[in-house]
């Protein structure tokens, strides 16, 4: 099971000051050194975090596959065809949402999604659809010609009670079982963290997990001691150096 790292929230921090750091490319390269199997970024229509130039630089520099999450929008489709990520994950996108809220309803417009798959695949870009855990959406993704599906784990991750979490887990497990009989590649993602990933990692037949927010948050926690200690050293050393008058 591969681990793909979503680096959107490195860009969120950078955009808070509209500066140049933290740099999503540097963090992507560090993630690769640590063992990441792929780098994911979501170029949103409102460009709230990842910018076009980030995607270009990632494509030029990373060694692992680049996975571009995107909405079905003409502008982003043209951009993806120019950049040629290893694959795109099509997601629904709403301007007001804080993060992707649900899976794509592929059934709602199969013909549109068929055209999308054809266009991407004719440009040597694989297609994954981000779908809710239902066999209907798996069938719709297959009918559209998708190479892969990513099953939305957000409801499982957000469950408030053990019973709710069990129910959501079962939906994911059943959908994976169903998709395996159809020979389509399966990824899982959204809301996975250091508590809830162990359970989904046990599901047979899943080839990739896509994890972002919790991992970037955790890296702040595990990194802050070292960061403070380095800044203290700079201050201490420099305040001890005898000044010439
Ligand atoms: N998969 C998809 C399709 C997403 O839209 C996101 C969020 O950008 C993720 C995975 C990663 O979710 P999280 O940041 O909650 O780990």
What do you see in this structure?
The longest helix is centred in the C-terminal third of the chain and has 28 residues, at 213-240. The model has no long low-confidence stretch (mean pLDDT 95). Helix 2 runs parallel beside helix 3 (52-61). This protein is of the alpha/beta class and 245 residues long. It has helices at 8-15, 24-33, 52-61, 74-83, 110-122, 135-144, 154-158, 162-180, 197-201, 213-240, and strands spanning 2-6, 38-42, 66-70, 87-90, 126-131, 148-152, 185-189, 208-211. The N and C termini lie far apart (63 Å). Strand 5 (126-131), helix 6 and strand 6 (148-152) form a beta-alpha-beta unit. It has a single domain (2-244), classed as TIM Barrel (Alpha-Beta Barrel). It has 10 helices and 8 strands. Pyridoxine-5'-phosphate binds at residues 6, 8, 42, 69, 89, 91, 99-100, 130, 150, 189-192, 210-214.
């Amino acid at each position: 099971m591969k681990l793909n790292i979503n680096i959107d929230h490195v860009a969120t921090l950078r955009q808070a000051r509209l500066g140049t750091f933290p740099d999503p490319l540097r963090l992507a390269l560090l993630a690769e050194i640590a063992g990441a199997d792929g780098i994911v970024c979501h170029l949103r229509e409102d460009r709230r975090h990842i910018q076009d130039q980030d995607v270009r630089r990632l494509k030029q520099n990373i060694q692992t596959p680049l996975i571009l999450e995107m909405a079905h929008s003409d502008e982003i489709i043209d951009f993806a065809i120019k950049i040629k990520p290893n694959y795109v994950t099509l997601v629904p996108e709403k301007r007001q949402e804080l993060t992707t809220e649900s899976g794509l309803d592929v059934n709602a417009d199969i013909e549109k999604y068929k055209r999308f798959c054809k266009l991407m695949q004719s440009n040597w870009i694989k297609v994954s659809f981000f779908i809710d855990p239902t066999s209907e959406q798996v069938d719709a993704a297959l009918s559209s010609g998708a190479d892969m599906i990513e099953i939305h784990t957000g409801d499982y991750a957000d469950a408030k009670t053990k019973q709710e979490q069990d129910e959501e887990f079962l939906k994911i497990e059943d959908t994976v079982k169903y998709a395996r009989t159809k020979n389509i590649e399966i990824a899982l993602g959204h809301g996975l963290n250091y508590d809830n990933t162990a359970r989904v990692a046990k599901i047979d037949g899943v080839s990739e997990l896509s994890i972002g927010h919790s991992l970037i948050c955790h890296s702040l926690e595990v990194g802050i001691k070292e960061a403070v200690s380095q800044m203290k050293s700079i201050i201490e050393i420099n305040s001890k150096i005898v000044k010439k008058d």
